[in-house]
Amino acid sequence: MIRGRRKTRNLSVLLSGKLARAASGALGVALLAAVAVKAADTPPTARNVGREVLTRFTASGTLRATVAANLTTDEKVAETAAGMIDVVEHAVAADATLRYTEQPVDAGSTGGAEQTALRHYSEAEARLRIDGSTVRSTLPPEASTLLTATTADGLCFWLPDGFVTREERDLVSLPFDAAWHSVLKPPPTVAEGTTWTLTSAGLAELLCIDTVTAGVITATVEKLSANHLLIGLTGSLRGGVDGVPTEIEMTASYRWNVTATTLPGLVSLQCKMHERRQAGYVTPGLDIEATVEQTCRQLNAEQLSQQAPPTARAHREIPRRGPGRPGKLWLADPHGRFNLVHDDGWRIIEQQSDQTVLRLVDHGHLLGQVSIIPLPPTAEAPSLASFQEDIEHSLAGQFNHLVEATESKRSNGTRILRVASDGEADGLPFRWIHYHLATGNGSQATLSFMVESGQHERFGEADRLFVDGFVITETSDCRRDPRTD
Predict the structure, then answer these.
(1) Which own/partner pairs from 381-389 qualify as long-range (CB within 8 Å, at least 24 positions apart)?
(2) In the structure, what pLDDT confidence band is assigned to residue 377 with cuts at 50, 70 and 90?
(3) Do residue 286 and residue 432 come from a single domain?
(4) CATH for 420
């Protein structure tokens, strides 16, 4: 088995996070947050070599999205675990354009991350059409200069001085990312007609899936010149994305510069793919055809200096909690009541004015779900005893017994109540972990985790890590309750 990135998307990354929420009626959810962060004190040290990459992506076909209409949060989790969620189909189409310059970066200037590069996106735009409705997304100015690294979990993106959102990360993630061009590198000695198979562990990452379990992609040298090879790709494979099966058929041709020494020598690529993928817990199923067109141009130090991004940073309203690092994403409440740095495995499945719901999926296993509910500013902060009593009352017949109840306080004065209890929902055993956070000025929020008992050991301390990254935003204009508008 060839393992790819541990927590990733499908063939069309565009058709995962944003499209899944769009299919469930959340087209109005803000896809990008216009937010920013304090400038880093020490910028990364980039080397005087690089390349310019232009990628154009199009896809069309059918989306198969899971729906759980008119169910409570607990019922959604219980029915998902029991395999009782319905699936609906939508006609979809998407296109995206990415243009960026990229320079390798010394690992010592980015906290030690290996294979790190500094990218500046001069163009990053996508359009998503589903059942006649169109959503357009672009990369905001404050997120146009990113660091990338190939890690054990795949390709990570972050800001030199903060974190990107999932929508921003998805926007710049497409098949055949330049970070994985080495997968396409031909053998040292070839002639016209030479064939080989792509068996590198990077093949899954190259195609934006999690794993490759079967199938073969064959490369053939179709034409040979003094400096370039024209190489054809053909084949099919089976693999997995977020734990569900996927099948990909593809044909492609690309031109490789055999004289390139510093960076992989891909010059241009054209690819057609067909993917069929089942629906999962947090991403939709797909039956789509896609095309990828890509060109790459090597840049020397002088050319890089001519294309250097502007040094002035965009105005920033909400800090992105830097310094940034791989494997983490940033989420800001559209109403400004909280922001969150969380592990890549958490996926938004619902975002409304009264609550935000995320699910934690690891290697296809649904480990848990959390509901974030900002409370009205006028709410009275409970004691630990009254919070525990409210939880037992709200769970009603589902409550079995109390596991733990604790109270703690952060250095900034935020008080945290945590109550864990066991019970049942729809005949399945669950553990609930409820948090209440209250700041010194009275701002409050509750976070309610629900974990199927069979996944509790694997879930581990995920709730504590999640809460550690959760911050209630204490600004005067965030004290208004949007539910009263």
Answers:
(1) 381/415, 381/436, 381/438, 381/442, 381/444, 382/417, 382/436, 384/417, 384/419, 387/417, 387/419, 387/434, 387/436, 388/419
(2) confident
(3) no
(4) 3.40.1000.10
Supply the range of the domain harboring residue 299. Answer: 2-306
Domain assignment present for residue 324? The answer is no
204 within some domain: yes
What pTM was estimated for this model as a whole? 0.81
Report the domain count for the chain. 2
We report the CATH number of the domain holding residue 214 as: 2.30.230
Q: Is residue 349 within 8 Å of residue 357, measured between CB atoms?
A: yes
- What's the one-letter identity of residue 12? S
Is residue 300 domain-shared with residue 339, that is, in the same domain? no
Task: With CA atoms as reference, report the closest residue to 382 among 431, 334, 415.
Answer: 415
Q: Looking at the domain assignment, is residue 164 inside a domain?
A: yes
Angle at CA 139, nearest 5°, toward 136 and 143? 160
Backbone angles phi, psi at 224, to 5 degrees: -125, 130
Look at residue 82 in the predicted model and tell me its pLDDT: 45
**344 inside domain:** yes
Are 459 and 442 within 8 A, CB to CB? no
End-of-domain residue from the set 288, 306, 324: 306
Tens-place pLDDT, residues 42-88:
445 555 678 999 999 999 999 987 664 333 444 444 444 444 456 78
Task: For residues 174 and 40, state if they share a domain.
Answer: yes
* pLDDT digit string, tens, across residues 391-423: 988 888 888 889 999 999 999 999 999 999 999
